[in-house]
Design a protein that fits this description.
heterodimer; A: about 350 residues; mainly beta; Immunoglobulin-like; 2 domains; four-stranded antiparallel sheet; elongated; B: about 450 residues; alpha+beta; eight-stranded antiparallel β-barrel; 11 strands
Chain lengths: ~350, ~450
């Protein structure tokens, strides 16, 4: 038997180092130099939400000047993939968006098949009533939208759906229905059968069936029909319609698929905002020059104060910037070592 | 544009109004006040120690002299000495007178005998007697000269006188044997005289012994003194032999706190076994002991600037609270009667410690943990120097004081830096010594 003295070792003090997060470069001919830990500069990585979609951000600032980088989420309609920072060697600079720029989606009464019967539409976005019959989105995101169609006859129809704007869709789901002799309803999702993993049908939030094709005569005069769909690629979607059994024209179709939308997508794109001497510069996409943030190295760093994991990205950026004060385009080039929460 | 073209007053006015005036902030004053208080505390600590140390030292030296003083009043001592001298002088004179009287009596008796003898034996006998008588006179002179308080010497002179008288008588009787019968009366007279002399002698001795026994005297000065004629130089050189004492010592006291420099916040206790060598009055001591320092607040720090999301200043404070040493002391000193004093040094070897580790991030305490046995930032070996004083209370017990400080510091000059107010704290201890073998 041996007797030993277990002397507790004093923990080593952390190793001294040089600044980890740095941005050095020029914009509009002016030098910018930020080192987290020096001159009161600090790195603030954070997961932010833009219209219910994650953005992986990091801001390096000393109070006078700052560099703010945002990485857009991708695959936001696939729960298992959304919210994950996807590592790439190049991140395309995202296009400008916002009020004053072309909208990303517009739905007007004219987009409905029974538009001639509609007197107006009351739109609610995230519970906020919009003051126009035309619904317009200027920012990418995922919106909970409720529509209430008021018909000339005094009838009304309403339903709620989730609309994804500015992000790639992993399956164009659309709920179609038909009413036969005002007695029997037929409904389906217009997608290949083999792409559907599961589907559930609800009438007035009461489960009715999990068949791919739904039909029933047991229906009230007015009701909402909802389908919860999961595709084989992991996409999850819900669609809701309003059906008036007695007058099918006074129903409310799947409005998610309606409207005009450009092809711009922000999946995994990056936008840089630089503030220097009170002027804000924002990176702009220039397809002609192939604006990219070229990454040399991505590594896992630490967790930040709110518990989010942080990646350290090292790379270079050389892209045009918009001077938001003057509207002029200037050049910006940076060596970047920045942290991004994910 | 030239500066001459500007309105100078306007320029100054613009400049003065373009900047905000500095605002008073109470935090600045609080910070300054804290700095001033910290400096004052150090000064007060130093003054306190200086005054305390001086007072203690003065007290130690005063006690050294006080303990060795003879408290008998000087007047009393002078009176005793003078009465003693007078007594000796009176007695000497009385004795001389008595002896002279006796000699005269003897001389008278002898001359009577000689007168008878000269009638019978003629001139030769008379000369013999005169010679004998001269010898008696010489003895008498010797007696006078050599008479002192020493009883032995007096007895010797009286015996000589006695013997001389007897010798004279024998000579007279041998030479006057033919006239014994006629001189029988003379013989009886001589014997009677001898008896008188003997009685006087005996009374003298008895009386003198009684007087001496009641005299105030300092025994050491007189009784060991030999006659000058008996002294001789020894051919053997005097070599004092060293005296060894084995003793145990326990000490306890207070020490300056490393962190605050305040003298009453830390303790120092030790226990040791020592050997003392005494050569004449010189003392040399050594031994081995253990020493415990408590509530030391010896703070060593380690800092690191770590860049991350910002700058984090990490600081580990190793706050040593207790230090346990084994030590070897070496002391030199001098002993005066029951008091000894001197200087000492001791070499310490750090055995173990008790320490609180405080971890700070950007000056905020984020963790505290206790550690035992750690010696990070400390030297294993250190030395102390001190002044000491002891006073022997009994044959075995001595009480002492000790004042000292570190000579070579405990703090290792490496990755840690000293956060304490003092590096070499001053300490003071009371000690109790017990002689085991002597």
């Amino acid at each position: 038997m041996s007797i030993s003295c277990n002397k507790k070792e004093i923990p080593e003090i952390p190793q001294e180092n040089s600044p980890v997060f740095n941005v050095v470069g020029t914009i509009d001919g002016k030098k910018i130099k930020l080192h987290a830990g020096e001159n009161n500069a600090f790195m603030l990585p954070k997961i932010e939400k833009l219209n219910s979609v994650d953005q992986f951000t990091g801001q390096l600032t000393d109070g006078n000047s700052s560099v703010y980088i945002r990485f857009f989420d991708s695959n936001i309609d696939i729960p298992s993939l959304s919210g994950n920072f996807i590592e790439h060697s190049n991140y395309e600079i995202g296009e400008q968006y916002g009020f004053g720029l072309p909208p990303l989606l517009t739905i007007t009464p004219e987009n409905f098949t029974n538009s001639e019967l509609i007197e107006n539409i009351e739109w609610e976005v995230e519970g906020i009533l919009q003051n126009s019959s035309a619904l317009t989105f200027y920012e990418p995101g995922k919106y909970n939208v409720c529509a209430k169609l008021n018909f000339h006859t005094g009838e009304s129809a309403s339903s709620c759906n989730s609309i994804i704007v500015g992000y790639h869709s992993n399956g164009d789901v659309q709920l179609n229905f038909d009413l036969v002799q005002n007695e029997k309803i037929y409904a389906n999702i217009n997608i290949q059968e083999d792409e559907i993993s599961s589907i559930e049908w609800f009438i007035d939030n009461e489960f009715r069936s999990d068949d791919i094709y739904f039909s029933t005569t047991d229906i009230p005069n007015k009701f909402t029909l909802k389908a919860k769909v999961q595709l084989t690629n992991g996409k999850v979607d819900e669609r809701e319609v309003f059906i008036n059994k007695q007058a099918i024209d006074y129903s409310l179709e799947d409005f998610v698929v309606l409207g005009e939308k450009p092809s711009l997508k922000w999946d995994s794109k990056v936008i840089l905002t630089v503030e220097l001497n009170g002027i804000t510069y924002q990176s702009i996409n220039n397809p002609a020059s192939g604006s990219n943030f070229t990454v040399h190295d991505i590594s896992e760093y630490k967790t930040n104060s709110d518990g989010s994991k942080v990646k350290l990205l090292k790379g270079t950026l050389d892209t045009p910037f918009l001077n938001t004060t003057t509207g002029g385009i200037v050049n910006g080039a940076f060596e970047i070592e920045i942290g991004v929460a994910h | 544009m030239s500066i001459d073209n500007k309105n100078i007053d306007q320029m100054f006015s613009d400049a003065a109004h373009s900047q905000k005036a500095p605002q008073y902030d109470s935090a600045y004053w609080a910070e300054m006040n804290a700095m001033l208080n910290a400096k004052d505390a150090k000064k007060r600590g130093f003054i306190l120690w200086a005054l305390g140390g001086s007072a203690l030292f003065a007290a130690l030296f005063l006690s050294l002299f006080i303990l060795n003083m003879d408290f008998t009043p000087t007047q009393e001592r002078i009176a005793k000495t003078s009465s003693y001298d007078e007594f000796i002088s009176d007695k000497t004179e009385t004795r001389n007178t008595t002896i002279t009287d006796q000699n005269k009596s003897v001389e008278k008796d002898v001359s009577a005998a000689t007168e008878i003898e000269s009638k019978e034996t003629g001139k030769h006998t008379k000369e013999s007697y005169v010679e004998t008588n001269r010898s008696n006179n010489i003895n008498e002179k010797d007696n006078k000269e050599n008479f002192t308080l020493k009883a032995q010497s007096n007895v010797s002179s009286t015996d000589d006188l006695d013997r001389n008288v007897q010798s004279n008588n024998q000579v007279v009787l041998s030479k006057t044997s033919d006239i014994d019968e006629r001189n029988a009366n003379n013989n009886e007279q001589i014997e009677h005289l001898n008896d008188l002399v003997k009685d006087n002698q005996l009374n003298d001795n008895t009386e003198r012994s009684e007087e001496i026994s009641t005299l105030p005297f300092e025994q050491k000065n007189m009784l060991s003194q030999d006659d000058a004629g008996n002294l001789f130089e020894s051919k053997v050189k005097y070599r004092p032999t060293p005296n060894f004492v084995l003793y145990a010592k326990i000490g306890g006291g207070l020490m300056e706190n490393y962190k605050t420099s305040r003298p009453y916040e830390s303790g120092l206790a030790d226990l040791s076994m020592n050997i003392e060598m005494k050569l004449n009055n010189i003392l040399l001591k050594s031994g081995i002991g253990v020493q415990h320092t408590s509530s030391a607040d010896l703070i060593l720090s380690q800092t690191a600037k770590v860049y991350g999301f910002g700058l984090t200043r990490h600081q580990n404070d190793l706050s040593y609270q207790s230090l346990f040493d084994v030590y070897i002391p070496l002391e030199f000193g001098y002993r005066i009667n029951a008091t000894s004093f001197g200087i000492g040094v001791q070499a310490n070897y750090l055995l173990t410690t008790g320490m609180d580790l405080n971890h700070y991030e950007n000056n905020n305490l984020v963790g505290t943990e206790k550690y035992f046995g750690s010696s990070n930032g400390l030297n294993k070996f250190s030395t102390q120097g001190y002044l000491w004083m002891e006073h022997q209370l009994t044959n075995r017990l001595s009480l002492g004081v000790k004042v000292g400080t570190n000579i070579s510091g405990r703090i290792k000059d490496d990755s840690y830096f000293n956060q304490s107010s003092t590096t070499n704290p001053i300490y003071g201890q009371f000690t109790l010594r017990f002689n085991i073998l002597q």
